[in-house]
Amino acid sequence: MTASAVSAVSATTASATPAPPTVRISAARPAPVFRGRIGRDARSGHYAAPRRYRLYLSTACPEGLRLAVAHSLLGLDRDCPAAFLPAVPDGPDGGHSALRPLYEASAHHYAGPALAPVLADDWLGRIVSTHAPDILRDLDRRLGHGRPALCPEDEQTDIEAVERLCEQGIGGAAQRAGTAEADPAERAAALTELLDALGELERRLAGGGLTSGGRLTAADIAVWVSLVQLDTVHTHHLDADAVRRIATHPRLWAHARRLTAHPAFARHLDLDGIARRHRAHCRGQEAAGAGVRILDWSACASRQADRR
Fold first, then answer.
1. Which of 11, 101, 153, 304 could be a cystine partner for 266, CB 3.0 to 4.6 Å?
2. In this predicted model, which residue has the larger pLDDT, 303 or 306?
3. Is 119 helix (H, G, I), strand (E, B) or coil?
4. Where is the composition biased (Low complexity) (predicted)?
5. Buried-state track 77-88, b at ≥16 Cβ within 10 A, e below 16
6. What is the pTM of this model?
């Protein structure tokens, strides 16, 4: 269920051109090239205005998936259109050819890969930011007026703690736990770190929610995307016993199931795209965990479609 493009990036061209089999995407994303922000008023270079900005992303990428869900929750289809890029970048350097003109217009003699996500200023024809956390907060605080805040100031400490837990304790630890070439002791330590992170999230949910306010925030989006990646990507490189231990967090996986049935989450869950992106960059060995799924993500998402 891949989202459709609503932008000047030609979805027809981007999706109709198959990704060359030689493309390999680096597992470690480089540091963001652009770190501009949307300001409060006209005194800032980039200030909030309807239809001034455009978001470019791929929902097969964890950062892109987080932004796509936030974009939908904030109802920004009209005020900040989104362009959905192919799951596997078509550039030989792992970048998107559709983004190349924007990068070159924004940085003189730019020679690096044209990576997504990108928040662009349509008025100036240049990139504002390629830093996903900043983009999410600017969408929420500068453009998402009239919708419940995803990054409320009074819950910012909790949200950032959960986001770090997802990035380091889930994503980073799962990556290390599934590295076949690593020392067995290092893999065991990484798995322990992963299970500790899942346990911390389980305890938070037992206390009423991921954040003190108990409402849907950017923390829920971060956790959901991390669990999607964990179950559909990282478990391919873990043994079956490790996957079973990961699954022993009932509140956490029930929370993921509920979120998947939410229309803002379900519409962007592109399982086929995630699998193709994984195959494009993965060089690791498949393990027994590849045959064990914790959630039936398609079934969870289809429940939302059935209620329409």
1. 304
2. 303
3. strand
4. 1-17
5. eebbbbbbbbbb
6. 0.87
